Amino acid sequence: MSYDKISNECTNAEARMELLINVIAHEMQHAWHYADTMTKSGRWFYSRKAFLKQGWTQESIAEYFALCYAKKRKAEGKAFAYNNLTNDRDIAQFPKDGGYSGALLIDKEPDMFKDIYLMSIEDMPTAYDKYLKVLKEKYQDKSKRKTSKR
């Protein structure tokens, strides 16, 4: 999330705070994921195409955590971050958007998150191929049809 986006779209302090909290949740998940990965497999860097899959997997996991937190905040009557996240992300853009919209894919089948996460701490490219790519193929076509009707 860019500074310009925050300053242009967050018209009040409460909205800015909601986005800030959500960004912190996203970044905290990156830290936990790094710690779990280094403890389990010790493999954080991959090369070539695997490097892209690694990034897409990392951002999907972190953004899903942020989405879950935003849902909790929405249930408490603070929906700005949730609305912002769901409006900014588009399944049809996965993984071209860096992997962030993978959160919406995982949200379609949240029971799969545990499997994605556990596989990712052992081998992130395999987690992408085995889970995220499958979700992409399953839901992206539906998303494209929905988008094309607009």
Please provide the count of β strands. 0
Overall pLDDT: 89
Instruction: State the separation between the terminal residues, measured CA to CA.
Output: 26 Å
Q: Report the sheet with the most strands, covering strand number, pairing sense and barrel closure.
A: none
Shape estimate: globular
Number of helical runs?
Answer: 7
Task: Outline the low-pLDDT stretches.
Answer: 145-150
Please, could you describe this protein's structure?
By secondary structure, the chain is mainly alpha-helical. It is built from seven helices and no strands. The chain has helices spanning 3-9, 13-40, 48-75, 80-88, 102-108, 113-122, 124-148. α2 packs across α6 (113-122), α3 (48-75) runs antiparallel to α6 and α5 (102-108) crosses α7 (124-148). The longest helix has 28 residues, at 13-40. It starts with a helix and ends with a helix. Residues 145-150 have low confidence and may be disordered.
Question: What's this, in brief?
Answer:
With 150 residues, the chain is mainly alpha-helical. It has seven helices and no strands. The C terminus is likely disordered.
Give the SSE layout:
Layout: H1 3-9, H2 13-40, H3 48-75, H4 80-88, H5 102-108, H6 113-122, H7 124-148
Helix pairs in contact: 2-3, 2-6, 3-4, 3-5, 3-6, 3-7, 5-7, 6-7
Primary descriptors:
76% helix; mainly alpha; 0% strand; single chain; 150 residues; disordered C terminus
